[in-house]
Structure formats: C-alpha cells, structure tokens
Amino acid sequence: MTSATKDQPQSPDAESNSAALPQHVAVIMDGNGRWAKSRSLPRVEGHRIGAESVRDIVKTAGELGIKYITLYAFSVENWNRPKSEVDTLMKYLTDFLRKETSYLNKNNVRLEAIGQIYRLPEKARKQLDIAKAKLKDNTGITLALALSYGGRTEIIEAVQSIAREVKAGQLEPDEINESVFSDHLYTKGIPDPDLLIRTSGEMRISNFLLWQISYTELIVTQTLWPDFRKDQFLEALEEYKRRKRRFGRI
C-alpha cells in the first residue's frame, strides 16, 4: 500500500480528466476512536464528527462525477464492541439517515446498503428503508453503506446461495464463473472499486470487499477519518491519477 501524496491538492476537472477519475471509490473510515482519545473525548464523539466527513466526501465525489462510493460504516466484528458503544453507533446511524436524507436527495444521491442488514436494530432498518425509498430514483452518485458487513461472510453466503441453486438444478457447476459468483455477492450491480482509501495509517484490509478489490488501487493516509475532508480526498484522487493500472499486463 502507498501513502497519499503530500502535494498541494488540486480539484480534478470533471470534464477533461473524467477518464482519470475512479468510477468507484471505497473507503475504510478508520480512526474515529483515536481522534476522540487524542482530544480526551468519548470515543462516540469521534463517530459523531466522522459523520461530517461522510457528508463532505460524498458531496465532493458527486460533484466530480464519481459514480459510486462505498463506505465501511460497521463491520460484523464491530458487534463485539461494548454494548454501549454499539447502541450509540446504531443511534448515530439512525439519526444520520433521518437528518441527511433530504440533503442527499438535494444532491441527487442514490442509497444502497450491503451486509447483514437484518442484524441491525429495527429502528435503524426502518430508517434505512425509508431513506432508500426516498432516494431510489436519483441518478447521481450511488452511496453504498457497508453495515454489519464482512468480506468473508459475504463470500460464504454467496457460496451457499450458489450451492442451493446447483442442488435445485437451476445452475450447472460448469456454469459457475467470476461473473456468476459476483452476481451472488451483496454488491451485485455495483462495479468493483477502482480505488480503496484507508484512513488512520493502518496497513490492512480489515475484511472489506475481499473479492471485489483484487485489482483495486490502494491508498493509505495517516489522516484520521474525522479530519479527512475535501482536500485530503482530492490528494488521494491526484495520487490515483498518477497510477498506471496494468491488471496483470505489462
């Protein structure tokens, strides 16, 4: 993984540089707890301020013409955190969806969710359904929230689904290929990410989009997620523009 450049960021021109922009950006939003700890604040305060970064990055991505952005909001492993923190995170999620839906609608954002959504509390699920319904006809950027998400879980569930189809005689084993497998993932209909950004400097994937990022460009920045805003996002996009994507070719 390569750290983001420190050059002065410049906003890519949405028309002349559209080919250099990623179609799909995925983000591991890390560092909320450390951001709060460094300021002697409760961990949940980092999550609250981190929600402001979500708004900033989604708005910027949409303005630039990026088609998809997937945010790793809550992993299957996160259920193991203290109940008080999990409950607060679910409340923040519910509040974010309720408060931000009008803003997202104004910015022509379409909303999707990937993961074991059934594990979310009822209030969060209902608010998610309401938001998705209100935004379903928008034609701008698609925001995919990874909620109760795990890459290994996603792959296992895809295999189970394919196995059921084979058992039922709906699919022949020889018909299983990468395209068929991808159609059984949570991300069906969403192209694989061109760029994955991880904040906070941690050099790991953390069980995120394991199948989908096989040829994704990776950028790790030391910036903690609550401090990751438009300028830092543009830095990452400038670094992406300098990459030469070979996909295994010379």
Structure description:
- With 250 residues, this protein is of the alpha/beta class.
- It has a single domain (20-150, 192-242), classed as Undecaprenyl pyrophosphate synthetase (3-Layer(aba) Sandwich).
- The chain has 7 helices and 7 strands; from the N terminus they run E-E-H-H-E-H-E-H-E-H-H-E-E-H.
- The chain has helices at 32-37, 43-64, 83-106, 122-135, 151-167, 178-182, 230-242, and strands spanning 2-3, 24-28, 68-75, 110-114, 142-149, 195-198, 217-220.
- It has a 7-stranded parallel β-sheet, sandwiched between helices.
- Helix 2 (43-64) packs parallel to helix 3 and helix 3 packs parallel to helix 4.
- The protein is globular and about 55 Å long.
- The two termini are 20 Å apart.
Q: What's the gist of this structure?
A:
The two termini are 20 Å apart.
Q: Could you list some keywords that capture this structure?
A:
250 residues; Undecaprenyl pyrophosphate synthetase; seven-stranded parallel β-sheet; 7 strands
Question: Secondary-structure blueprint of this entry?
Answer:
Elements: E1 2-3, E2 24-28, H1 32-37, H2 43-64, E3 68-75, H3 83-106, E4 110-114, H4 122-135, E5 142-149, H5 151-167, H6 178-182, E6 195-198, E7 217-220, H7 230-242
Parallel strand pairs: 1-7, 2-3, 2-6, 3-5, 4-5, 6-7
